Amino acid sequence: MKIFYVILYFIMYIQNSNSIDFDYPSAFNFGDSNSDTGDLVAGLGIRLDLPNGQNSFKTSSQRFCDGRLVIDFLMDEMDLPFLNPYLDSLGLPNFKKGCNFAAAGSTILPANPTSVSPFSFDLQISQFIRFKSRALELLSKTGRKYDKYLPPLDYYSEGLYMIDIGQNDLAGAFYSKTLDQVLASIPSILETFEAGLKRLYEEGGRNFWIHNTGPLGCLAQNIAKFGTDSTKLDEFGCVSSHNQAAKLFNLQLHALSNKFQAQFPDSSVTYVDIFSIKSNLIANYSRFGFEKPLMACCGVRGAPLNYDSRITCGQTKVLDGISVTAKACNDSSEYINWDGIHYTEAANQFVSSQILTGKYSDPPFSDQMPFFLSLKF
């Protein structure tokens, strides 16, 4: 496999008040494992060891990935530091440029006793509100002592509010609901999402960056569980029902984003079509330098999926009377999927590069500012 690195230059300029200028003093992120930089690990006190983080960080970065996430690449391109997780109190975290409230396993709907994460979208927003209140209180009472560590008041109105959540609402629903029932539940999920957006707006948020959900049916976890019948798979080997649900969710999320923009004209809402980017990557994986579109890099059982739901990446367990370890593949840059659920750093880099072309966003922003990003082809 040949790896080439090219530099993409995007020359951009601001045209109107709703344009994306990427000149934000801070960023506040809400979501699930797609953008969790350590919140769930800190919040639940769980371990996430190597090989997670093995590439860029050379140690576990508390991310469900072999390296950087999409949000890490986006922070780099906006000249902002990687976002520290809200719940991680160790290592003298600096929140001057923002904070990450995303937690793996989180949903838009309120968590229930069987949820992987208790930190639903509404709870993450409550954490943000508390963070803002406490930060401003400390800044007002202690003079300049915390100036280097906490965002000032104007960073909340001028900052970027990034949201990537909804995948777990849909994927989890399929374990107990039919496709029709999952589709019927989408409006209520998005009502909760809209209520959360309004809360952020009421707290001063004006710049919103919303990712739609990716092709759930192409994740090894869902193929292993729901794709045993080949008639349930599409031409790429993905579970058709899951992708159908994701498409309807995204259609309604897009409409909601446009509605919100119309209701609050002083806001700037950018909707990003992650589904199209990832679907294109999977459909044309070899063109973009990948060799394994669906198979997990870190797992057990080997081809075709290298995935077993009973064991996670890096774990050692006794399965069927045999001790096995879910190990990483030799070269994760050949794989799109890291552990059956999450993408590899190489795939995240590709997704980021496509986001930054601006053509997958509404409104598009391909004429607004320069970006420099190394891509794998």
Describe this structure in words.
There is one protein chain. The protein is of the alpha/beta class. It has a single domain, classed as SGNH hydrolase (Rossmann fold), CATH 3.40.50. The protein contains 10 helices and 12 strands. The protein has helices spanning 39-44, 70-77, 121-141, 154-158, 167-173, 179-202, 220-226, 240-263, 274-283, 345-355, and strands at 5-9, 27-31, 98-100, 160-164, 207-211, 268-272, 292-296, 316-319, 322-325, 335-337, 361-362, 372-376. A hairpin with a 2-residue loop joins β8 (316-319) and β9. This is GDSL-motif lipase/hydrolase family protein. GO terms for molecular function: hydrolase activity, acting on ester bonds.
Chain-wise SSE layout:
Blueprint: E1 5-9, E2 27-31, H1 39-44, H2 70-77, E3 98-100, H3 121-141, H4 154-158, E4 160-164, H5 167-173, H6 179-202, E5 207-211, H7 220-226, H8 240-263, E6 268-272, H9 274-283, E7 292-296, E8 316-319, E9 322-325, E10 335-337, H10 345-355, E11 361-362, E12 372-376
Parallel strand pairs: 2-3, 2-4, 4-5, 5-6, 7-10
Antiparallel strand pairs: 1-12, 6-11, 8-9
Helix pairs in contact: 2-10, 3-6, 6-8, 9-10
